[in-house]
Amino acid sequence: MSAFRRIAYPDMPAERLAMLRILVGAYGVIYLLSRVGAIWGVTRYRPQQFRPVGLAWWMESPLPPGLVAAGLILTLVAGVAYVLGWRFKVAGPLYAAGLLWVTSYRNSWGMVFHTENLLVLHTLIVGVAASADAWSLDARGRPLPAASSRYGWAVVLMGWVAALTYFVAGIAKLSHSGLGWITSDTLRNFIAYDNIRKAELGAGYSTLGTWMVAHAWVFPPLAAVSMAVEIGAPFAVLNRRLGMVWAAAAWGFHVGVLALMYILFHYPILGVAYASFFPVERLGRWVQRRISRSSAAAPEPEPAAPPR
Amino acid sequence: MSRPQAEAGATGWWAALVAVGLTVAVLFPVARGTDGFPLSNYPMFSKPKSTTAKVYHAVGLSPDGIGRPLSPEMVGTDEIMQAYQTVKLAIRGGASTADALCARAAANVLDDEDYASVTTVQLRVDVFESVQYWQGEKTPTRSRVVTTCAVPR
Prior knowledge:
heterodimer; A: mainly alpha; 14 helices; globular; B: 153 residues; alpha+beta; four-stranded antiparallel β-sheet; elongated
């Protein structure tokens, strides 16, 4: 039991969870802003294309465009409060629910963007934890709390959920294809197929991946490494070093996917998906030091001229 | 019980509830074999795949019959996979939905100078041999034109 407590409820500094709130929140808000066109674009789709998923599962028909816009705006406002840690007990869950809603609705048109899954799950975990006890508007003027499992559990859970999503993907491959997924030409054929789809839909594709298709021997080792990253993912939470090694391997996996299939899993590629495996509070402290150093170096204002 | 102890206990229960709930939720699609959002069994790229590649797409034809794929924007999105699904669902939806998308794409082609030579739009299902495709054999092994419409120039 004590080993479980040590792994699942470790004491961690409040700043680590706070930094994750800032990273995950800022990433989500910027992502939503970058996808406004696509989110708004669904209002022009035919209602017959509507295939509700996620929070929209109960809907029988699409929303009027005004409500789509209202949901997006409310989510963005809550997202800014989430990042700043302002009234976080409300803003945290509200933004998490809003992001789930907006992405669910956007994914309800026949194409599920799995790239958004982990972002939504992480946002939810951070949103329901004590993530604004440091580096937030809520925590202004309060002393920094001591390291506690109150912060550690959410950080560990973020890593655990990230690892589980990879594990699930690995299990899907094993259950659908068995070890043949590694030993056969399946990976090569997927890379060839996915790039054809892109080329025949008038989009960019991977020249490296399409060149490699002619070299069948490359793919079984690549498939074995991919499978190892996925099936081995749950071990990442056992200790800090394993977590970092796995995060680096998983990041490399996505670099490979980008290079060979031209599929950008932006959340992992930018490293935010794996930030919980690292002492990210150091990044925040470094920024703090830079800010205080530059304000200390700022020139003193000129003294006012004495009255004549 | 002191206040910090009570808070720690409440946090522990809350943490356990969230952790167990999320673990079950993330694993649930594996047991059910369902793909959804944000919980999925990630079925893409998991099933055995042959070298046959079936592609649903919109193609623009110039008067000499030379075809070129239309970009995702022509079918109403800037996302490649959404474009693929849009064309696929329109084709599977029957003649009227396919015709409607074809007409919309033709109207978009009219507004785009990059497609100045395109006079006709087709929604098609093409089948390729995927490995041979990347060795230069880009002619479909099978092709079905679902609908054709003129660009209203």
